[in-house]
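pipeline: protein-struct stage 2 | run 1193 | Plasmid pRiA4b ORF-3-like protein-domain-containing protein
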Amino acid sequence: MSTPNSFASPASVCDNCGKTPSTSTSSSPKLQLSKCSRCKAKWYCSEACQIADWDAHRPACKRPNYILQFNLVPDIIRDPAVFRTLSVPATTTFAKLHNALQVAFGWANTHGYDFAWADPAYDSDENEALDREGFLECFEDATFWGFRKFVLRLREKDKLGVHNPDTMGGHVNRTHPETKEKSTEHTKLFKILDDKEYSDLEMEYMYDFGDNWRHDIIRKGRAPPTSHIVCLDGRGHGVAQDATITGWEALKEAYRSPSPNEEQRDNIYWYENEAMNGDSNGLGGGGPRARVGYK
């Protein structure tokens, strides 16, 4: 049956029978309209009306897109901030979303990744304190005995169907026996994002478990359905993949410097000539060592 939602403005009439909400009486309760739980666009006064309209409505009944903003390590990368806002079809798999993010952010797609939903009860300070006391060191894989960090993780699989760990092995720090895990290749967005169990949890997309390029995900709303992912907005030059987070900040400083020192010159050369996802025009896009305009 349809359910109330805020995607579309409330209708004034049932899209099947044309009835309008009426003032309730002792013998006639107030008529309430509910929208189609899939497309959020059609409104009905009853399940019977929705069923009666289904054959006509079915061809156009598609789930609305999600508008998602991805913020790259926003607690550190601020000058400028780096983010992308995407409109994503609800039936997109998380594996396809990963591929779109690689293009949108200019990554080289050579490392592991996952999508994760945070456990609100997790306390990083408590976990670190437990580790310092030595309890976690008693086990071969210490993280399995710490506090659960994520309620859910979506992971990629290799061609043999086995979960594919990153070569750095950093994914181990994100696992826990009480964390649910699913495959990105077989999980569609609406299966998770429409699930009330995860709707209020913080989300992130992690790329490269060595450098930990964390993209915080913010739900910005819904949009009419499309057949493909669209980048709606963004800011910030694509980040040098293997620079590390602190190395990226240092690289920006090198381009800002009116007189780069030897280490800064080496960083500039690396980025423009050797970095896997570097830019021969530098960060400014206007030729080697351009120092402005990388916002």
